[in-house]
Amino acid sequence: MARKGRTDESREPGGYSAMPWSVIDSQAYQALSYPAKALLIELARQYVRDNNGRLLASSAYLAKRGWRSRDVITRAKAELIDAKLIYQTVQGHRPNKASWYAVTWYTLDRLPGYDAGVVEGFRRGMYHTAPLPIPKPTRKALYDKWRDAGAADQKKPKAGEVLRPHHGLETPGIVPPHGLENEPPRPPHGTVKAPLPTLPRPPDGHHLEIPFCTADSVQSASLQPTAQTPVNDDIDGGQFVRVRECDLNPQDFDPIRGEFTSSPKAPARQQKQAADRWVKTALEQVPITNH
After folding, report:
1. What is the pTM of this model?
2. Nearest in space to 82 (alpha carbons), one of 137, 40, 143, 115
3. Considering the domain 21-129 in this protein, what is its CATH number?
4. What is the CA radius of gyration of the chain?
């Protein structure tokens, strides 16, 4: 009578992937990233007792399982190989040869097609001897490091302490090596000459320096006086005489005033205002002598 096989009715029927607790609790597995842990499950799903060493992790195979990024697959495989949780048995190449892998908590199955030296280099449980990766610093650790570095560089001053730079309060100004000031540059032939030459000067002098009364005017004044033309005086009703330059007397020229001052003519007696003015003018022309 045939013996019936035992079935576990407490779970879903079908195959399953057994991952030992020693693998899950190992430091190599705990240090993996989430994509690497997910890829390890995909490899463990392919194991069926006699194919450990022919497990696939290519992009073409994983694309059917929902993997879309080749970069994520490449980084996850590199993590698993460094952690020694998987072992590469065949190096893939173009055009259509994929790489083969084996999980390290099972014994390597003897299959044809392995690369040279693969069987000798495989050991079961080699993930226990994998070097622990350097854990990435957390955000809190990075913040504490940044804060401590800033506090060390910039210490708070004590009460009453004045902050001073290490190089002193003031920095000397930038000075050229030859000094602050030098003689102004000069051309070899001397300083710049005047652009315009000296203006020519007439032989008889500048016209602004010639006196108002020239020798010609004096000579003309010494000529015989001509008849004088009487003109009515609008101020006081008298008459004054209009004299030409040739009728002037050189002896009446005043060099201080620069004009001729002829002696006023005595007015008639009935012209009182003109007489008073004549007396006043005559008294002003009398020289003052000291006795």
Report:
1. 0.47
2. 40
3. 1.10.10
4. 65
